[in-house]
Amino acid sequence: MLQMKSELSLLNELNVLYVEDDKYIQEELEFFLSGKVKSLTIASNGQEGLEAYKNNQIDLIITDIQMPKMNGLEMSRKIREINKDAKIIITTAFNDTEYLMEAIKLNLGNYLTKPLDLNYLIEIMIESAKNILLEKENRRILNTFEQYKSVVDERSIVSKTDINGIITYINKPFEEISGYTVSELIGKSHNIIRHEDTPIEVFEDMWQTILAKKVWQGKIKNKKKNGDYYIVDTIIKPIVNIDGEIEEFIALRNDITELEMSKEYFKHRNEKTSTNLKESIRVAKTYKDIVDKSNMIIRIDLDRNITFVNDAFCEVSGYSKDELIGKPYAMLKDSNVTMEEYQTEINAMFDAMDGKRVLRRKLANRAKDGSTFYCKAISYPLVDKNGEISEYMGVRHDITDIEKLHKELEDTQRELIYRLGEVGETRSKETGNHVKRVANYSKLLAKHYGLSKEEENHLFSASPMHDIGKVGIPDNVLNKPGKLDEKEWEIMRTHSEIGYEILKNSARPILKAAAIVSYTHHEKWDGTGYPKGLKGEDIHIFGRITAIADVFDALGSDRVYKKAWPLEQILDYFKEQKGKHFDPTLVDIFLENLDEFLEIRDKYKDNFGKNS
Q1: Cross-strand partners of 220
Q2: Measured between alpha carbons, how far is 546 from 386 in angstroms, rounded to an integer?
Q3: Is the bond leading into 328 cis (omega within 30 degrees of zero)?
Q4: DSSP bridge pairs for 251
Q5: 3-class DSSP state for residue 261?
Q6: pLDDT tens digits along 488-524
């Protein structure tokens, strides 16, 4: 009942169009739906309904079939020409069999016979609301991603290539700087803009790095169509699919031609014996101004206090010079990093500079508003005339937009995996964040158990698909509200093997791990589980971990066949099943770190249900 009340609130998000020519039925349903939906538009025939759809923001259409002027099927056909994904529920009399067949051909799968069962109508509307809200959220995510891509396209020189280095995309700034058009570059190798001054070793290092699924950064001199050259500060990132395979490479560049030309000029001028001190000073000042305007600069004394920042640093960080100068460098610590991690990293950086080494690395710092900004940084020690280090200097380039794009791409890949895992859960009406909680519980257990980082990440990505085999279980078994009989239970148990059969032949590490999880997460430590009756450590560690994650979340969540258990009862169950159902070592780890598991549970509470 509590679940129904919660789901009824979804109807408040719907703009509904109701088309019915029978005034008595029309008034009855209008009275029933008023106050339950966001807005309700009434039409008396198909022609009125079509016009109402064109002139209003409609999420769901409920329509009779037989009506004057234009029947419900003709109206639905015309609406589908406007929006092929329009959500339509047909109401029909028992003698409308011929019309009903036409409705099925139009893929209008939701229909109700008259007199209307209003409770069943509400159930169909709730399911439609869930799908509509999910589609809206997916459109929002896609729109955000497209806007982010647009920002990066405007600020950077962007190209994409396939796995063989063939260009598949360039943006407008790429055309402008190279002098080539899109049609002249798409389908070509990047060798078309390669400049002979760039050593072959640079490209060998680049390919070795990106084929190892790592990010490559460096400067490249390229040739324009007219024979001139340009120099770009370049970041190349491999884009991998959910199987961990490289699908393409994306490169983001910043034009540093003017800066590099100035450096060369300055070097050339200072190599000459000059008698004009004023000219040398002017050239040096010009060079300093160019560097200062093109980069973020920070200087730090031996006590690690900030002694200087330029305007570019203030613009990116949001701090004024007065707020930074004289303050400890630690005030810029990224809020996503623990103090222990920060101290380890910062000590290593300063120790290296104390050894008079120049460091090239990516840094993350905290801005004044609490956000994180990322920089590609060169840090080096400044020495006095005696060769002693007097302070440290950092020259940085802001790559925050690039890092955010990387994160957006990674989050999108992870979202695809969650969507796949939710297929089985949606069919069994286990909505909400079940697969996200199971994934995070599994990752946490793997970390405390001591699995490698690679195994931890594989399990994190694979565990959302633990119940993918439920796609092969009939609805009458999967969603039965009571206890399954012996025959039904035999059918239900096959979902482990169904999932295994779906995934087992993949050569991809994540899908291999998912096959193991699907096959073994219902095995029990004492050998009484299924499908193979494996015992103890014969059960793969991925299965043993996912078993605890899945059961902990299932017991604490409402399902069609039970109510959620209180936390105390769940913990008693795990203590009682230690060494029976569950690996005793993993149970101890789970109980010792319970607070961390509860944090995950609270972070990913269900949107439509209620967690214990």
Answers
A1: 232
A2: 62
A3: no
A4: 159, 236
A5: helix
A6: 889 888 888 988 888 888 777 878 888 899 899 999 9
